Amino acid sequence: MEKFCDIKCRYSGLVADAVVLVATVRALKMHGGGPAVQAGTPLPKEYVEEHVDLVRKGFCNLGKHIENASRFGLPVVVAINRFHTDTEEEINVIRGMALESGAFDAIVCTHWADGGLGAVNLANAVIRATEAPSQFRFLYDLELSLAEKMRKIARDIYGATDISFTPDAQDQLDRLAAAGFGRLPICMAKTHLSFSHDASVKGVARDFVLPIRQVWVSAGAGFVCALVGTITKMPGLPTRPAFFDIDIDPDTQLIQGLF
After folding, report:
1. How far is CA 36 from CA 29, 46, 84, 136, 138, in A?
2. Which pTM does this prediction carry?
């Protein structure tokens, strides 16, 4: 969302009218302290049974996303992607807390099971949100230094107390500014699994300094990138990539090996 608003909208001249945030009961339970989920093993019972307290505790993550959208002056529609194990009370908690946190609306969706019919209410809510007067604004002024723009993103969007640079990153930053790239917007490259640089920190991270270890310019695209924490530029494939096990049944024409 931040990259879309501060880079895409800035260059395209397009102005966003609304934000749709997709949430699930299971995701909020994880952010509320639910057990780790391991691929290939059954979900822990906390995710398939009613645990309203986990939902309440984990809502802070969704609440922070709503707060971030408001920094751009945009109305937020929360799409609650409902699954068969979710209970009415868990859904009602999310909807109530979303509205209390300033969301324009919070809609239960079942399009994963019902196709387009399961998202009609969401579509109507988005239409209503986009009809409201737009107060879109960018997070930062391009006249700020590169470091100050990074600091603004880290503090306002991620909740960091400050940022830090490795000696290499500081040298790269200085050279980019001297070369005339100081007025470009910023693209932060970090884990998507946490507001912090540590993917294991769920909910809303607090009292942390965001470490930037590398800085470079994508001159053609028109932005400066900051590599945060241990994130890599290109994830590596496993020893045996999944595509080895994906095939098409010649008789039924069905794809095999996806799940």
Report:
1. 10, 10, 21, 37, 36
2. 0.86
Look at residue 67 in the predicted model and tell me its pLDDT: 97
Q: CB-based burial of residue 174 (10 Å sphere; 0-12 exposed, 13-18 middle, 19+ buried)?
A: middle
Residue 214, classed as helix, strand or coil, is strand
Torsion (CA) 107, 108, 110, 115 in degrees, nearest 10: -20
Q: How many angstroms separate the CA atoms of 123 and 104, rounded?
A: 13
Tokens representing 167 are: 């000696």
Which among 9, 85, 92, 11 is positioned nearest to 45, based on CA atoms? 85
| Per-residue H/E/C for 55-99 | HHHHHHHHHHHHHHHHHCCCCEEEEEECCCCCCHHHHHHHHHHHH
Q: How far apart are CA 121 and CA 107, in angstroms?
A: 7
Residues in the chain predicted with pLDDT less than 50, given as ranges, are none
How far is it, in rounded angstroms, from Cα 149 to Cα 3? 12
Radius of gyration of the chain, Cα coordinates, nearest whole angstrom? 21
Q: Are 22 and 79 in contact (CB under 8 A)?
A: yes
The DSSP 8-state label assigned to residue 186 in this structure reads E
Choose among 20, 33, 18, 1: nearest CA to 98. Answer: 20
pLDDT for res 257: 87
CA 189 – CA 187 distance, rounded (Å) = 6
Kindly state the tokens that stand for 171.
Answer: 């040298």
